[in-house]
Hints:
Low-confidence stretches: 1-12, 25-37, 40-44, 71-140
Structural class: alpha/beta
Distance between the termini: 81 Å
Strand content: 5-15%
Number of strands: 13
Strand order of the largest sheet: 1-2-3-12-10-11-8-5-6-7-4
Amino acid sequence: MRHHLLTVQMAATSRHNCEKSRANGGRNFRKQSTLVLTPWLKKMMFTSTIKHHLKVIICIGVFVLVVINLFNLTTAGRLHRLLFHRLNFFKNRETAVATDPWQNISLGCIIINRTLQSFKDTVSNSNFTDDLLVNLSTTDRPVSEVTEFSGYFQNLTYFQKKQTPISKIPSTFKISCEAICALDPMEMLIILMSLPGETKTRLDIRTTWASQLYGGSWYQNEIVRMAFFFGGAGLRIDEVRALKLESDQYGDIVVADFQESYQNLSLKLATSLTWTVQHCPRAKYVAKIDTDVFAHVPMLLQFVRNISQFHTHFVVGRQHGSTKPGVTRAGRWAVSQDVYPLNVFPKYIYGHSYVISSPAVQLMVKRFPYVAIVPNEDAFITGIMAKMLNITRLSSNVFAYSLTKYSVCDFTYRNFVTAMCKPEFLQHVWQSMSSGSCSKTVVSEFS
C-alpha cells in the first residue's frame, strides 16, 4: 500500500512539474525530476562504484603477486650466488654469525623455523646492493628424539661396562696431520672415511662444498676443518707414497694403523674419533660425512649450534626407517652372536651423515676399549654406543635420505644440510648452486 501511494505521489508530482515546465519554458523540469529521483540514482551509482573499485583492487593485487613472483625468480640466482659463492662465511666468526643467512634458525619446542631474512650489503667485499631483499616462507623442520620400543633394552648386561678392555683401538698414526686443528678458533671437524683410490673424489669435495674451509695454499684456518681418514695397514708402497704426497699438498690426510675392510668400518670411525679427541679437543662438534654426500656446511654448523642450546650429549642425523632394526647373521653385513648377541639393534641414525657433540665423542672414546666392535658402523656408533652411554639421539629430515632422488634443482633451491650425490656430479651441482641455475638431472646415489 505504502509503495502504491508513493508511486501515485510520484506520478502526480511529475505531471505537476510537466505543466509547470511548460509555463516556464521547460527550465525547471530537469532540476525537479532529478531532485525526486536522486535517492534511487545515488543508490545505484554507489553500488556500481563499489563493484568497479573491487575489480580494480583485485586486478592490482593479481598484478602485484605476479610481479613479486617474477622478482623472486629473478633474484633466486643472485641469492644463491651470495650463499654459495660470495658469502665469506668463515673468515670472521662474529661477522659470519651476524650475516649468516641461516642465522635465524631457532629451535623452539624442538621445531626449527628457518626464515631467510632480507639481505643487505653487510658482508665485507660484497657486490650486492640494498635491493637484494629476499622473502622466503618459513619452513618447519621438526627435530624428534629417537626413543626405544618399550622395555626391550632395559637391564641387559650387554650394555653394561666391561671390567677389562676387550677391543684395541689404534692410537698411533702413520700420517697424523696435527696441524688441522692447531689454530683457534675451532668449532666443528668434518671427518670423511675414504679409500686410497678415491683421489678425484677427494679433490672434487675440496673444490666444491668444502672449498670454503681452505685458505691459501690449501691451509685450513677456519672454524670448520675437514680430514680424510684411511687404514694404513696392508697398503701398497705406491698407495702410501701417493697419500704422503697428497698430505703434503692439502694437509687433510690421516692414516691410522689398521687394515681397510668393510668389517673394519666401525673400527675406522672409532679410530677417527680417538684421533679427534687427541688432536682436536676444542672441536665442539664432529660431523661424519660420506664421500657420496653433498653437505651445506654453513647451514649444518648453524643447525647443530641451535641443537646444542637444548642438548649437550647428542648425535643428530636422520633416523633409520625400521622401528626394530634387525641383525643380519650372514652375508656382507653379518654380525656374529659372540660380538652382538641380540636380535635387533637399538634405533640408530643413517650412517651417510650425522653430527656428534664433543661431550658425546669423549664418552664414546673412553668406552670403545670396553665394547666389542660391531662392524655395522651406523648401528654401532649411533645406536649401540648412544644407547649404552645414554646419549640423546635426534632425527631431522634436513639430513640426507637414501631413497630420495635428488636433482640439480633440489640442490639449488631445496633446504637441507646434507643430500646424497654421486661423486661424478659434485662439480656440476656446485656450479649450478653457485650460479643459481637449475635442471632436472638426477644426481643422487640411488637414482
